[in-house]
Design brief:
Length: about 280
Amino acid sequence: MAGFWGKLFESLSKNTFAGRVVTGLGAFVRGRFASVPYVLGYIGCTFKSTFAFINKEKAARKILIMQLLFTFIEALPIIAFLSAALGAAIFLFGYNILLSLGQASMIYQILVVVVVRELGPVLVAFVVTARSSTAIATEIGGMVTSHQVESYISVGVDPVDYLVAPRFLGVTLSVFFLCLYFSLCGIVGPYVAAMFVNPSIAAGYFTELLKNFSLMMIFTSIVKSIVFGMIISITATYFGFNVERSSTEIPVAGIRAVSNSFVGIIIADVAITLVPSLL
């Protein structure tokens, strides 16, 4: 049996189309997984530096404040508009459709699930990725090409402690608070819209809405926001440090940071959503 597989592998390894496909696939898989130990080590160093961040000097704390200002404060208007518009559209259009089917009370459950647990955290993560991921990767990539990172290392400053930890903490906290803000605006927005369109359905709005909240739903939303923030910040800083010498690599690092953040967010969202149903 072993001889059969050996002959098969030998025949595929020859200069044939099938051999080239197998060789190319193997090279692709090896290339993808070759950096896994480095990525895991980088994540570990990031967590270690973040836990020790409280003892850092004021300069690092200033980076944290600036990251919160850019990622959290400046994103509040667009998050408020998106959440209020989304919540109002779901409630008003969904209510009329479900009313015709005799299931009008289900709109509150749909609104809570979509705004609080499912779409809210994902939309917030996408907005933060589009605004902050490119900026972080570009900033760190520029510091690499201008040899500022080498200067930090030469004077004994760990770049992960000084550059990554405050951004990791700032982005993660920003996504967490923006998700709470999104949920609040997404719940209040439909009520305000209903007051103008159809005041009769706004009378018992909050009473019916609170009946459809659960601790698991809130917990899932919180976990998603924290995990998404970690993915965005780690991915952005990682690809920023991957810039080597040329300034032309900087925009490529920004694009890779955004695309890989999107993929990581979607995978994490599916995993976190499926875990409770499997337990």
